[in-house]
C-alpha cells in the first residue's frame, strides 16, 4: 500500500468545441470559467475542480478523473505495480506535472502533483 494519500481532485471534460461546451455549462448550470488559452478553460463553481480540454491532440475520449498525489514518481510506480498501463508519460503544465494511465478495467485516469 502506498504511503502517499491519493484523492480524486479534478475532472477534465474533453470537447470538440470548447466554446460550445463552456456556453452549455454556463447556461445550464450557471458555472463560470477561467480561461488558460485557446484550448483550455477551468470550470468555477462546479463543486469540484474541473476543466474543459478542447485540444484535439491531448483530449481523452471520455471525462478524465485526475488524482492528486505528492510524489509523482512513487504514484507511477504504484500504478504499474498494481497492473496499470501508462498511456501518457509525465508532462508539465502550468502549476503542475501529471501522467495518464489505464487501470485493468479499461478506465483512463491521471495522477498529478502541484509544482510551485
CATH architecture: Roll
Gap between N and C termini: 27 Å
CATH level 1 name: Alpha Beta
The total tally of domains equals 1
Number of DSSP strands? Answer: 8
Overall mean pLDDT stands at 92
Strand content: 35-45%
Major sheet attributes: 8 strands, mixed
Rg is: 15 Å
The best one-word shape is globular
**Strands across the major sheet, in which order?**
2-3-4-1-5-8-7-6
Helix content: 10-25%
Name the CATH superfamily assignment.
Answer: 2,3-Dihydroxybiphenyl 1,2-Dioxygenase, domain 1
Structural summary, described in words:
Helix content is 19%, strand content 42%. The chain contains two helices and eight strands; from the N terminus they run E-H-E-E-E-E-H-E-E-E. The model has no long low-confidence stretch (mean pLDDT 92).
Record the SSE blueprint.
Blueprint: E1 7-14, H1 18-29, E2 32-35, E3 40-44, E4 50-53, E5 64-68, H2 72-81, E6 85-93, E7 96-102, E8 108-114
Quick structural overview:
This protein has 2 helices and 8 strands, in the order βαββββαβββ. By secondary structure, the protein is an alpha+beta fold.
Q: Which features would summarize this protein structure in a list?
A:
116 residues, alpha+beta, 2 helices, 8 strands, 42% strand
Amino acid at each position: 500500500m502506498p504511503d502517499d494519500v491519493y484523492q480524486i481532485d479534478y475532472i477534465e471534460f474533453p470537447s470538440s468545441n470548447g466554446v460550445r461546451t463552456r456556453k452549455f455549462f454556463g447556461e445550464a448550470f450557471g458555472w463560470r470559467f477561467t480561461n488558460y488559452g485557446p484550448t483550455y478553460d477551468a470550470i468555477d463553481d462546479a463543486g469540484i475542480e474541473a476543466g474543459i480540454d478542447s485540444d484535439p491532440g491531448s483530449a481523452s475520449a471520455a471525462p478524465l478523473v485526475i488524482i492528486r498525489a505528492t510524489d509523482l514518481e512513487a504514484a507511477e510506480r504504484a500504478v504499474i505495480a498494481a497492473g496499470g498501463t501508462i498511456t501518457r508519460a509525465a508532462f508539465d503544465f502550468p502549476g503542475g506535472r501529471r501522467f495518464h494511465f489505464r487501470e485493468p478495467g479499461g478506465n483512463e485516469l491521471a495522477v498529478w502533483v502541484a509544482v510551485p
